[in-house]
Amino acid sequence: MSYDFGSFAAAFVSDPILALIVILTLGATVVNGATDAPNAIATVVGTKAMKPTPAIVMAAICNFVGLAGITLVSSAVAATIFNMVDFGGDNHAALVALAAAMVAIIVWGVAAWYFGIPTSQSHSLIAGITGAAIALQGGLGGVNGGEWMKVVYGLVISTVLGFGTGWLFTRLIKKACRRAERSKANSFFKWAQIVSGAGVAVLHGAQDGQKFLSLCMLGIMLAMSGQSGGDVSFPFWLIIMVSAVMALGTAVGGKKIIKSVGMNMVKMEQYQGFAACLSACFCIGLATFTGLPVSTTHTKTTAIMGVGAEKSLRNVKWGLAGRMVGTWVLTFPGCGLLAFAFTHLFLVFF
Question: What would the pLDDT profile of 147-164 be if each residue is shown by its tens digit?
Fold first, then answer.
């Protein structure tokens, strides 16, 4: 089956459900760009290495480059999401369920953005498609347990490794620079932090962007060929389209999230901001090239907490961190149940 842009455009015009899914997926990608992407450069702003506006522009460009560039080399995360659930059977019902999942993801993400809480759109996406698949199949038969376990592995990487490497990199930097002149060290770490922050933004584009890319491709395949699993290759035009939409979302939103993560959680110096970005790059890069879906928000936040804890546990505002963790914990059942309910509702009307 050909998935060239001309064939897609014809299907888009003739199939209203496919059009709805594509629009909803791109809408969710915009929300992700506005809510998750700013975490990549939150510490860069928090330590005053960059002002908010140029930092957001940098993140938008890097998101585009990361998704478009890395996906051409490795689409392991997209393949994991693509095969995580089974919407097979009745193609019409499968498309309706996928649309319901996207509505749930958007509603959950917008609510989090409104309250300035950096909830994980990755977790929302996984919860949404899982809840929709369970509703469609009437049980856990629609969930691929092997692929879903990668989510658990990703949580371990983003939490334990994120915190641990944040602590370790901070300690190593302090030891390596203990005799350095402070003004020269600060000048170096300012630029090192900008470069590493750009690296996090690139990897965010690859990690989170591939998740939405896979859902968009799933809708296209269900509508055009009836397929819903197995090996998949992503057409270049679709990669570019999703990349551009994510970059747009980053460019138009994000200051609330930057304030919550970069300024309120831990008060950091330049070298600490660099350690947090370096830690996030390591963890997200490891997960991306091994096909583990992780939350950029979760990883960057735990890295920041590890950096703060290296000096003193009192440096971390655990109350704010606890509120964020509570939000992440609620996302799986909350967004999943929302998608479950929307799926049943949509199947009645559509």
Answer: 899 988 988 888 889 999
